[in-house]
Task: inverse folding
């Protein structure tokens, strides 16, 4: 992931630089943890606000688990009480093999549908669970998506209908009010278990610690030592990968239409929150000259969206739910998100895990925004999400940036590793640069770029023999052929504005 700060307001620009480099960088890993889905039998389920409870206890399940934690945390007046509560309730380490699982007689599965109103939340928090490997091993008789909401979006029905072939004929959409759910004695629930990482013993604790930057700590968000938000940034449910693979294959088989390999996605003017960007016409004009095709995702079917994105080398779009389609991007694709100070501070993490699943190059560009007061910042709860503003100068810089970054044909995760390492080397943090490369050796040691980076690191540390060995290894791989080796990145003149995270 790379952040490009083009904000002109000095105060916001400085705040963004500090926020992205400190808040995000020091808590990011190269490869996220793919967390297995757990099939849980929930007795006496009830729905409280946006999450489920069983026997009065909140179920920490995925995004709804985060909301449950936040809601519970508000009940404590002092931080000491909150830390003590979470330590007692969630932080005792458990050996997973000691947990007894009981086979349920029912074959009916219920999936929490966190949000029927928003394409992003439904796809990334609910729908993918129907593709869980754990679920596939069972003789499923029925899957229901349950929600307290009485409104079911048309996009939900379309996704279920078009994916019926790969998820089975027994999928149902139901809108349940609280009394209906209360009548159930038990349900089987596929759970996203990122919240359990620190409750389970295992090697993953060492992996998390190995990725910790020198002098930094993973703790400090909730009850110590349970840094939930960091785990959220660096983990995703494995069913997202299975969903991605199956739906891409289905789209390739079912959709005959093709699109250009460079896509600019516009927001439909019929959307309730249109967020029209000033200056967008100028950007579209210049990108069209570069071979970009303009696409409106709201105007094409779900599988057409998947086919369009999965075949693209580059996608540019404004921040919004449409960015969910990054889940289907290929690993070598470059996805550019046009955002603002507001999306950088409050909303960037929405798409981090999606980029980890696809492994693509994820660029977040911070632009000025349509907000009259330069001395204060908009509040999402009252002002909503403010659209970016693109000046003529921004258009030129954006086109130059996109053309420059697209020269990198390597998978996004490989480029991310190299840029992470360069970040530490530039700051003299050689010990952590070595630790970073060592932790990811098994993924990249067959690539020339990896060994070339080790050579440069060893050379910077005056380890001449190690540097020579690494450079020779890189050359040997290049001679034999390196499938992940691409062209070098040619940075634009404003490369100092780039922050790697």
Result:
């Amino acid at each position: 992931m790379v952040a490009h700060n083009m904000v002109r307001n000095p105060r916001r620009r400085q705040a963004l630089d500090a926020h992205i480099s400190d808040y995000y960088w020091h808590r990011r890993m190269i490869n996220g943890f793919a967390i297995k889905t757990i099939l849980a039998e929930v007795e006496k389920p009830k729905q409280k606000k946006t999450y489920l409870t069983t026997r009065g206890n909140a179920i920490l399940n995925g995004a709804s688990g985060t909301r449950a934690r936040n809601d519970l945390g508000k009940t404590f007046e002092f931080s000491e009480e909150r830390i003590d509560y979470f330590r007692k309730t969630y932080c005792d380490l458990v050996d997973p093999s000691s947990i007894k699982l009981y086979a349920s007689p029912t074959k009916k599965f219920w999936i929490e549908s966190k949000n029927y109103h928003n394409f992003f939340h439904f796809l990334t928090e609910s729908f993918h669970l129907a593709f869980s490997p754990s679920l596939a091993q069972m003789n499923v008789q029925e899957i229901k998506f349950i929600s307290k909401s009485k409104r079911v979006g048309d996009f939900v029905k379309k996704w279920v209908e078009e994916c019926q072939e790969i998820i089975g004929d027994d999928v149902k959409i139901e809108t349940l009010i609280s009394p209906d759910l209360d009548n159930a004695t038990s349900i089987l629930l596929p759970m996203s278990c990122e919240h359990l990482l620190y409750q389970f013993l295992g090697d993953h604790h060492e992996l998390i610690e190995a990725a910790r930057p020198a002098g930094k700590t993973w703790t400090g968000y909730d009850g110590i030592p349970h840094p939930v938000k960091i785990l959220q940034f660096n983990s995703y449910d494995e069913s997202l990968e299975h969903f991605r693979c199956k739906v891409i294959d289905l789209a390739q088989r079912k959709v005959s239409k093709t699109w250009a390999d460079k896509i600019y996605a516009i927001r439909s003017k019929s959307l309730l929150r249109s967020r029209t960007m000033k200056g967008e016409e100028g950007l579209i004009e210049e990108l069209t000259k570069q071979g970009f095709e303009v696409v409106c995702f709201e105007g094409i079917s779900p599988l057409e969206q998947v086919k369009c994105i999965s075949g693209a080398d580059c996608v540019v779009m404004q921040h919004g739910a449409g960015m969910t389609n990054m889940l289907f991007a290929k690993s070598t694709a470059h996805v550019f998100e046009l955002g603002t100070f507001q999306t950088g501070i409050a909303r960037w993490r929405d798409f981090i895990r999606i980029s980890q699943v696809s492994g693509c190059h994820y660029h977040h560009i911070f632009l000025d925004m349509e907000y009259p007061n330069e001395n204060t910042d908009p509040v999402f709860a009252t002002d909503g999400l403010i659209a970016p503003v693109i000046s003529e100068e921004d258009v030129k810089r954006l086109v130059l940036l996109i053309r420059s970054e697209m020269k990198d044909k390597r998978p996004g995760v490989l480029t991310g590793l190299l840029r992470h390492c360069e970040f530490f080397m530039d700051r003299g943090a050689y010990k952590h640069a070595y630790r970073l490369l060592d932790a990811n050796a098994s993924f990249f040691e067959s690539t020339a770029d990896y060994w070339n980076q080790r050579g440069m690191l060893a050379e910077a540390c005056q380890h001449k023999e190690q540097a020579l060995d690494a450079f020779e290894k890189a050359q040997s791989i290049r001679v034999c052929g390196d499938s992940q080796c691409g062209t070098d990145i040619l940075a634009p003149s404003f490369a100092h504005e780039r922050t790697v995270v």
